[in-house]
Amino acid sequence: MLAELTHGCPLRCPYCANPTRLVTRSGELDTGEWRRVLGEAAALGVLHAHLSGGEPLLRGDLAEIVAGASGIYCQLVTSGVGLTRERLAELADAGLRSVQLSVQGSSAAASDVIAGRRSFAAKERAARLVVAAGLPLGVNIVLHRHNLDAVDELIELALAWGANRVELANVQFQGWALVNRRALMPTRDQVAAARAKVAAWRGRTEVELVWVAPDYVDGTPKPCMGGWGAISLTVAPDGRVLPCPAAYDLPLDLPNVRDHPLEWIWADSPAFNAYRGTAWMREPCSGCPRRHEDFGGCRCQAYALTGDPRRTDPACALSPDHHLVTEAVEDGGGAFTYRTFSRPRPVL
Q1: Which residues sit in the known binding site for [4Fe-4S] cluster?
Q2: Which residues contribute to the annotated binding site?
Q3: Residue-level pLDDT at 342
Q4: Which residues contact 154 (CB under 8 A, 6 or more apart)?
Q5: N or C: which end of the chain has fewer CB within 10 A?
Q6: pLDDT tens across 214-231, in order?
């Protein structure tokens, strides 16, 4: 379960997966509502909750929310900005089990430009606090045109900070990343070089290095959340429940925990049943031997690029719309914009 506690964030990353229409603080679920949702999630069988945002540390009631998680393994997904020794101790006492820290670049200069504000020092400080507290530290690095060439330095940084898991996530073009697709789009040569470097690192470190494939470049669609409504769900700051974190813009009536219990939402809501299984598929997906592995690719991406969520994900080489992706790969470059609650402005 991904719990987006808030869309507020001190950073303004241009690849942010949050929707471009952000939920304001006044629309967020309150403490009691989040505790109820987590209790319902535990009863439903949820084992792992990623407490994310935005920046979840902006919630003054974060420890109360963690304490109400009913035994679910809780991981804090954070920029690190605002994390103090006292705050971390409070969260650990409440039941926090691990921390995932985002890193934008291998140096303060590179990181702060991508993040849209000075934050590198706060990230380093946060990493040292997490390690000193004895909590597992994961580092998440979104890879794109502006940092792929520094993948060696990024891995070295994560290891120096004490990470026991490093997620090297090639940018997924949803939310703000789709707005900034040209600016973030890597070249094929960049991806190939970075992939080779990661393979070499795996031969000389025992730290887990996770490579999230670039579907635009590889011509292979990413599995849609392990299957639509199959293994995970996302709760938005305002209580909407999504089968996929990027499903905000799909033509679906998204259910809300303020109106329905989580059990009904998961099992019976039209949104969660819209693309379950394979019966909804058209050719070439319906006859593809990989349909139970990639599930036709990403429904949100299909809709964003073609206007039809039932079409084959254009990232797939078999898609009749694959040219939309190959053309985009060859059209990288230019300015990108910060994530913002108001009108974006160029930053590069």
Answers
A1: 9, 13, 16
A2: 9, 13, 16
A3: 61
A4: 103, 105, 106, 141, 147, 168
A5: C
A6: 999 999 998 877 899 999
